[in-house]
Amino acid sequence: MRITYWLTCTKRAGRLTSCPSQISRAKPAVSGLKGRNRLEKRIPVSELRLGMYIHKLGGSWLDHPFMRSSFLLSDPQDLATIRECGIEDVWVDSAPAGPTARSAEPDSEKLPEASSAPSGLAGRKNGGAGSMADKVVRAKRICLAAKEQIRDLFQEARLGKAIDPNSTLPLVREIAASVERQPLALLSVARLKTHDDYTYLHSVAVCALMLALARQLGLDERQTRLAGFGGLMHDLGKAAMPLEVLNKPGKLTDAEFELIKRHPAAGAELLRAGGAEAQIQAIALHHHEKINGTGYPGRLTGDEIPLLARMGAICDVYDAVTSERAYKKAWDPAGTIHKMAQWEGHFDKRIFTAFVKTIGIYPVGSLVRLRSQRLAVVIEPGAESLLAPKVRAFFSLRSKEPIRMQTIDLAARGCKDSIAGPEDPEKWGFRNLDDLWMQ
């Protein structure tokens, strides 16, 4: 039985207006529970017909023009868009076409102060220009443009050409504007990177995290700008690393790791040659240092590590471990915060506390257990409290079955529900929860 409960009310897939032609590997669609069989088959787009349920599009989530990778194909315009945008293959149900999902009756539990979930169409008229969905669409466009610009920058460095850090100033301004509108939109979208996108979108994510963290710390305009630039350029030295080592899908040997450890110094030198300010160079050089002196390359301790580099260390690690890589699965955002807090001597505690306030104890995309005995995914940070974000409940722990989606503002007056704690998506067999918070 395939699990399509969050699509019960969905009529169309959210689309972007652009139509990228460069398509890479697809990100898996959301699945249901471990042990439930889903019958899928891969077909060419020429065989795609209305009424089919698409589990996955043959392209990266960041490259194809849809807000989600899995949806019921019911709109002729969606079919035309898929055919026009260079998508070659899709994964669909192998079962005969039928109802999109079982009729999800409300769970017998009392639902506290909840509103019905939106249909999922990004930018729809009743969503409003300021809706989270609209900001996600804007963030996706920024990521698409940024990926190409950072790729070109790395390619120039790899070819031995002089780089001009100031050429990325418009990009940093665009990322800063997105962070100003809604920090979690860009940060959450940038986390959804494929292995092929990782190096470039990791730079974008760290830039956004640095800008948001700088705001939280109350840094002045100049320091904030330098933090953004440094985040975008922190891994430039990887352009000087052998591709077979940089892209190795498995664990590095000791010799390979020693080689990769040279990338901070290589990046700092590239930035120095390009005329970048000293503080930007310092972020590239020292973002792998640890407060207890066990980092590299300088084994610096405490305040010997420049402030912006201490910030960069936190932002770099968080995005790296919450991103899916060829050799590991992405960590759950909420679980990551908990683990990082336990790494004694790794990070500057004051800065890490500010970082948690920036992204929340339960970041967007986190799976949480509610006291009402439901599972929910965090869709927006809490405006007043780190412990009371907006969530989307979709599964009953009592019946062990999906329920009709409910969007709940845990900070709303009269709401009697709250988060009992984080949950590991792997424990429940959820392959990907991203479609839930993007609706």
Automatic annotation (TrEMBL):
Q: Please give the CDD domains that the UniProt record associates with this protein.
A: HDc
Disordered: annotated span:
96-130
Q: Which domain of life is it from?
A: Bacteria
The HD-GYP domain sits at 177-371
Cross-referenced InterPro entries:
DUF3391, HD/PDEase_dom, HD_GYP_dom, HDIG_dom
Q: Which PANTHER family match?
A: CYCLIC DI-GMP PHOSPHODIESTERASE PA4108, CYCLIC DI-GMP PHOSPHODIESTERASE PA4108-RELATED
Q: Which organism is it from?
A: Aromatoleum bremense
Protein name stated in the entry:
DUF3391 domain-containing protein
